[in-house]
Amino acid sequence: MSLVKLNGVAISGLMLVLVACAGGADDVSTEQTGPAVAEVDSGIATASDVAVDTAPSAMQAPEPAGSRPAAKAPVAEPTTTPPPRPATQAVTPPPAKGVPVATVPTPTPVPPTQPAAQPPAQSAGLYTTAQASRGEEVYAMVCSQCHMQAQHSGPVFATTWNGRRVFDLYDLIANSMPMNDPGSLSTQEYVDVVAYILKLNAVPAGSSALRADEASLKQKRIEIRGPARQ
Questions:
Q1: pLDDT tens sequence across 131-162
Q2: Which of 43, 99, 187, 192 could form an S-S bond across to 135 if both were Cys, CB 3.0 to 4.6 Å?
Q3: How is residue 165 annotated by DSSP?
Q4: Rounded-to-integer distance, Cα 187 and Cα 215, Å
Q5: 3-state secondary structure 94-131
């Protein structure tokens, strides 16, 4: 940049022009007589050689719009999703030294439950016709004094005794009848009365008589298959 001394102060060419335009050109002096001398860097120039300072581009007209290339929009880089991490398994730390390790006892296999033993299938008849006839006579002489025939037959009796053991009916009668003198009849008479009651409830008769044997009576069951007989 060219410099000119004004009143002992070095100023730029542009400032010199501005001072001259304002009417202060007479005050411009140089240290030498004759034409104004300006120190330009290392050389000397006359006032005529002083050109308007090439000032910064503040005095220049702005560039028209659109002369510059439009800025490119940033291109978004594709994002990649990292693959999922495999699930980590819990690691059981080893037991400390000197600490006993608890052991889980191996369960003992349990054998499958066997079905309950079913009683043997009974024959077609539990008593004989002659035995039921003897029991009817005992019933008429002893039992009918306190009981009606309908009390030992019919739907109510079937609901209570169907499927139960013959011994259960025998045991009830032998230990509670007759009411005024329980257990006063013989064992055979009690068994005959049971046979008669089975006949009243349509339990079929067979070729073998009902025996007064506890084990045998417990194996036989009362199966009422039809309406009671009158």
A1: 999 999 999 999 988 888 888 898 989 999 99
A2: 192
A3: B
A4: 14
A5: CCCCCCCCCCCCCCCCCCCCCCCCCCCCCCCCCCCHHH
pLDDT tens-digit series, residues 34-60: 444 344 344 444 444 444 444 444 445
* Residue 28 amino acid letter: V
> What are the residue ranges in the chain where pLDDT is below 50?
24-59, 120-121, 123
- Dig out the tokens for 115 from the structure: 């079905």
Q: What is the DSSP letter of 181?
A: S
CB atoms within 10 A of CB 218: 15
Which residue has 């929009």 as its token pair?
73
3-state secondary structure of 12: strand
The CA–CA distances, whole Å, from 29 to 16, 33, 39, 45, 206 equal: 11, 9, 13, 14, 165
